[in-house]
Structures are given as structure tokens and as C-alpha cells.
Amino acid sequence: MIDTHCHLNDEKLLPEADRIVAGFEEEGIESAICVGYDMPSSEKAVELATKYASVYAAIGIHPHDAVTADYDKYDRLAELSSNEKVVAIGEIGLDYHYDLSPRAIQQGAFKEQIELAQSLGLPIILHVRDAYEEARRTLYEMSGYLTNGLLLHCYSGSAEMVRDFSKLDAYYAFGGAITFKDAKRNVEALKAVPRDRLLLETDCPYMTPVPFRGKTNEPKYIRLVLKKAAELLETSEEELENITTANAKRLFIRMK
Q: Which of 32, 78, 230, 239 lies at a C-alpha separation of 20 to 30 Å from 246?
């Protein structure tokens, strides 16, 4: 299994990183992508990826922190991307739920980082919340900059929108939310995603799957996500594990 989105760089997990990564083999985890969301966490993600053979990094500035984005930081992201363990620019995108950065500034940072990813030959990992229509418009406007792939992390859009994003050859990652009681929308979207564009994630330390909801999430719980997804898609865990692992390696071409 590959956990395509985790935050070992989060203060809740960082002190436990040695223990967590040491358990990957026993837990059936081939690798995990540690995702940055601002400059300090992006730097830390690269440090962790350099330290652990089974950890890769994504680097970028989250929409919450879009007000901090500038071209000096983009230059630093470009420098960090020279590390072969950096597999994507992300998480970037739009978050109109909290609006911690003004929407116009979010849009600017989103577009600038899409351009950055294209210049570096890397795919993008998107965070989108309460802004799927705006994200769709932006991605269609910038479709010429998306030739290296895009992933909608923690996809919570509609099944209908899957068709729109799929025209851009998007990938979709699902995590612990599909195990929740109120997951009808997530389940409908999961079933609408083409199998060859489906990925799994934990988004740890957040979004802990049932039956551990309320506790700190870790990559080891990716097995619970896989089990639930296989049940919902009426396939075997082994088959879905093989499919999602192959999909991750196709999208993140730097992964070995």
C-alpha cells in the first residue's frame, strides 16, 4: 500500500516518526508521501524524505497560508524540488470554508503554484474545500499547465464533478471519511471514479477512520481505508491494493 497523503511533519506525529516508519513493513506499507502545507512543513517533509527510504515529500503552500506566498518562497520550493524524493507540488488549492486567506489571494497563489509545478515537471496535489466549482474553472483555464498530472486529495466533491475533473485526467484520493456514518456523498464519488485514477490516503494525523475515529491518525490505518473501499467497490483488498499502488506510481513518477 501507498499512503499518498500524510503529515509526519505535523507536531502530533513528528516525535513518533521513527516508530511510525519502522512499522511500515509489518503493516504492509510500501511508502508514504509526507505533504507540506507551508514553508516550514515543506522543509521538514524533505528532511523526513531524505532520512527515510520509504518516505517521499510533496512541497507547497496551502490556501490557508496563501497570504505568505511570494516569489522568494517559490524559488525556495524550486530548490527543494531538486531533491529526487520530492514527488509533487502540494498541497495547494482553494479553501472557501475557513477563508483564512482572502479568496483573491488564494486564487493567485493557486495559479502561481500550478505554473511552478509545470516548470518543474511535477504533478500537483490539490486541497479543495467548499470551492469545487471555482477550482474547476481555474483548472480548465490553466489546462495547458497540467501536463504532469493532478490529484484531488481527500476528494469531497460530487460524483457528477468527477466527470468534469476526469476530462483533465485527474486522480482522486480517498481516506478515512469513507468509513464515517454520514459518508453518502463520499461513497457516491468513490464509486464514480475510474479505477485507474483511484488512490488511498490517511491525511494523518487527521481524518482517523472508524473504529478509531477521535484518536490520532497514523499511516497504519490506511489498511482500514483499503478494506472499506474494497467493500464499497465490491472487489478484493488485494486487487484494490495492486490497482491503487500502480496508480500512485504512475502519477508520482519519481517514486521507485
A: 78
How far is the CA of 163 from the CAs of 73, 87, 166, 174, in angstroms?
34, 26, 5, 17
Q: Is the pTM of this model over 0.90?
A: yes
Which residues, 6 or more positions from 91, have their beta carbon under 8 angstroms from its beta carbon?
5, 35, 36, 37, 58, 60, 62, 125, 126, 127, 153
**Do 200 and 3 touch, CB atoms closer than 8 A?**
yes
Q: Is the dihedral of CA 62, 68, 71, 77 positive or negative?
A: negative
**Cell numbers 475533473: residue:** 165
Query: Could you write out the DSSP letters of every residue in 21-57?
Result: HHTHHHHT--EEEEE-SSHHHHHHHHHHHHH-TTEEE
Q: Which residues pair with 93 in a beta bridge?
A: 127
Q: What is the block-wise mean pLDDT of the chain (256 residues), using blocks of 10 residues? A: 98 98 98 98 98 98 98 98 98 98 98 98 98 98 98 97 97 98 96 98 98 97 98 98 98 94
What φ, ψ does residue 83 adopt, rounded to 5°?
-70, 125
